[in-house]
Amino acid sequence: MCSQILNDDKTRCPWCLGFNQYIKYHDEEWGVPVYDDRIHFEFLILESAQAGLSWATILKKREGYRKAFADFDYKMVADYPDSFVEELMTDSGIIRNRLKIKAAINNAKRLMEVQAEFRSFSDYIWDFVDGRPIDNQLRSMENAPATSKQSDQLAKDMKKRGFKFLGSTTLYAHMQATGLINDHLVECYRYAEVKA
After folding, report:
1. Which of 15, 25, 35, 189 is catalytic?
2. In whole angstroms, what is the distance from residue 114 CA to residue 160 CA?
3. The pLDDT value given to residue 5
4. Annotated catalytic residue: which of 22, 30, 55, 124?
């Protein structure tokens, strides 16, 4: 139990139990509404890197990603030359997958195109939930969806705009992480805090 690890009596979403880094992420970040494009870019990189892997693996490499991708400065990443992909392929601090690395660089460029059209990536993505977090009022993790109508629409639109490695399931996870969707269980102590 998480309460035994932290020596507290807070009720949390069960997916975070048993791994302190997960608990910290759950307690401090997951589900908090994000309006900063740099943070959105960070999660887009991390979530696209996660495809086929566990989120625990990605959290353990988060600092490696921070270093490899210029502290998630999408303007700098967009300017990475093709030759830098080869350098990143030797970086043990990240997932060394050529397609995912190239996707991160590509997605930095696409994000800036979205900014040019919508003022910010945040404005663009929040429009898919009409500017307000969706509250699924989950009672159990078995009821948690992997996709939604909104994530389907977002994935379709982002694919049309040239984003890579960001399907509906990955974008649903992004929407959960960045607070567009509140999927904390109702009994979780963070549910009400995030909702407020």
Report:
1. 25
2. 12
3. 46
4. 55
Gap between the Cα atoms of 12 and 41, Å rounded: 27
Superfamily of domain 2-195: Hypothetical protein; domain 2 (1.10.340.30)
| Total residues belonging to the chain | 196
Is there a catalytic annotation at residue 25?
yes
| Ramachandran class of 7: left when φ > 0, alpha when ψ lies in -120 to 50, beta otherwise | left
64 token code pair: 């490696």
pLDDT band at residue 86 under the 50/70/90 scheme: very high
Residue pLDDT, tens place only, 145-186: 999 999 999 999 999 999 999 999 999 999 999 999 999 999
Q: Identify the active-site residue in 22, 30, 47, 191.
A: 47
Tokens of 148: 């939604």
